Amino acid sequence: MKKIINSVNAPAAIGPYSQAVEANGTLYISGQLPINPVVGKIDATEIISQSEQVFANINAILNEAGYTFADVVKSTVFLSDIVDFAGMNEVYKKYYQTECPARSAFAVKSLPLGALVEIETIAAK
Question: Whole-prediction pTM value?
Answer without folding.
Answer: 0.97
